[in-house]
Amino acid sequence: MARGPVIIVTGTPGTGKTTHAQMLAEESPVPLKHINVGDLVKEKNLYEEYDEEWQSYTVDEDKLLDELEPIVSEGGIILDWHTCEIFPERWADLVVVLRCDHTKLWDRLEKRGYPLKKIQENNEAEIMEVVLDEARSSYPPEIVVELQSEGTEDLEANVARIVQWINAWKEQHAEGAEQ
Ligand code: ADP
C-alpha cells in the first residue's frame, strides 16, 4: 500500500505552487515529500538545453519521468511544476490547479525579475487557462481541483482543504478499509 497520496500542484509560474507545496508538506497528516520539479531538472541535468532568450530549460521528458517513477511509486509526494500533462494519469491521486488574477500575477513575475517577454507569455497563458485545460484533458475530472491563490487567506484555506482531502484519503486507505 502507498504510504501517502501523490498530489500534483500545478499552475502558471507565480500562482503560488511552491508556497502551497511547502505549507502542505508541513501541515499534512501523512508525511509528504515536496518535489520542486524545476529544481530537480536543474540539479540532475534532466534537460536538453538552456534557452537564453526565454531563460528556461528544455526538459528531457524521458529522463525526467525515469527519475521520478521510482520516487512517485512509493507515494507520499507533492509534485510542484508549471505543467502536468507529461505525468502519467496513474500517478495522480489529486491535481490542484492554482489560479491568480493576471494583474497580480504580472506583479509577482516582475518582482521575480523575469524578462518582459516571459512575463507576457505567462500572463497570457493564465488568461487563456492553459494549465487548467491541460489538467482537465489529462486527468479524470473528479481529481482536478481549481483553487484561487491571490492572498494569504486563499493560501490558508486551500491548504486546509487539501489537508481535509488527505484525511479522507487516509481513512479510505487505512488497513481493513473497503476499497
Ligand atoms: P510558483 O511556485 O507557482 O512559481 P511561488 O509559490 O514561488 O509561485 O509564489 C510566487 C510569489 O507569489 C511568492 O512571492 C509568493 O509569496 C507569492 N504568493 C503566491 N501565492 C500567494 C498567495 N496565495 N498569497 C500571497 N502571496 C502569494
UniProtKB/TrEMBL annotation:
Gene3D superfamilies noted in UniProt: P-loop containing nucleotide triphosphate hydrolases
Intracellular or extracellular location(s): Cytoplasm; Nucleus
A GO CC term attached to the entry: nucleus
UniProt keyword terms in alphabetical order: ATP-binding, Cytoplasm, Kinase, Nucleotide-binding, Nucleus, Ribosome biogenesis, rRNA processing, Transferase
Record flagged with keyword Disulfide bond: no
Pfam families in the record: AAA_18 (PF13238)
Biological process terms in GO annotation: ribosomal small subunit biogenesis; rRNA processing
Catalysed reaction equations from the record: ATP + H2O = ADP + phosphate + H(+); AMP + ATP = 2 ADP
UniProt binding sites for ATP: G14, G16, K17, T18, T19, R112
Known partners and oligomeric status: Interacts with small ribosomal subunit protein uS11. Not a structural component of 43S pre-ribosomes, but transiently interacts with them by binding to uS11.
Family to which the UniProt record says this protein belongs: Belongs to the adenylate kinase family. AK6 subfamily.
Protein name: Adenylate kinase isoenzyme 6 homolog
Species this chain originates from: Phanerochaete sordida
